[in-house]
Amino acid sequence: LYTFTQEWPVGSMKHQLSYTIAALSLSHADGLGDFAINYRYQLVSGAKVSVAPRISVLFPTGDWRRGLGAGGVGVQTNLPVSVILSDKIVSHWNAGATLVPRSKDVLDEKAFTKGVNLGQSTIWLARPRFNVMMETAWNRIETVIGRGRLLTG
């Protein structure tokens, strides 16, 4: 999965609008995925902690028949939190959810799918131009496998 996101401030740096284009390279198909319009609000921007929740609308631009998209409009949320632990260590945390009320399978059968994602990274600021990052990501998504039937993975 490859993504490109372009973000712009709206009125001030507290409000950000962006779009995300996804490209996928799967074992059976390559191409563009679903398109997202994102809104991010800088809720907390402190010396040690920053919090910037995001909500996105997902548009079904990816070819769902080839597994490159969900096949329906969805909504996604993410809550990122960044914490400066010391002059040399920064930690980032992220939790989110995705809902697509009318996802499709390859036979055009529909179901309500849900997804959850969690992520955490710790960055060591070793040198001014060299950082070391350890990152962990976890997600659980549902896939339509028949009318109203889901596979969780």
> Looking at the structure, what is the overall shape?
elongated
Give the class from helix and strand content and strand pairing. mainly beta
Main β sheet profile? 12 strands, antiparallel
Average per-residue pLDDT, rounded, comes to: 94
Q: Got a strand count?
A: 12
Query: How far apart are the first and last residues' alpha carbons, in Å?
Result: 17 Å
- The sequence of SSEs as H and E is EEEEEEEEEEEE
- Gyration radius over CA: 18 Å
Could you tell me the strand content as a percent range? over 45%
Name the helicity range: under 10%
Number of helices: 0
List the uncertain runs.
Answer: none
Verbal overview:
By secondary structure, the chain is mostly beta strands. The chain has no helices and 12 strands. The chain has strands at 2-10, 12-25, 30-32, 35-41, 44-45, 49-51, 54-59, 74-84, 89-104, 110-127, 130-146, 149-152. Strands 1, 2, 3, 4, 5, 6, 7, 8, 9, 10, 11 and 12 form a 12-stranded antiparallel beta sheet that branches. Strand 5 and strand 6 form a beta hairpin. The protein is elongated and about 55 Å long. The model has no long low-confidence stretch (mean pLDDT 94).
Topology:
Blueprint (H helix, E strand, L loop, with lengths): L1 E9 L1 E14 L4 E3 L2 E7 L2 E2 L3 E3 L2 E6 L14 E11 L4 E16 L5 E18 L2 E17 L2 E4 L1
Antiparallel strand pairs: 1-2, 2-3, 2-4, 4-7, 5-6, 6-8, 7-8, 8-9, 9-10, 10-11, 11-12
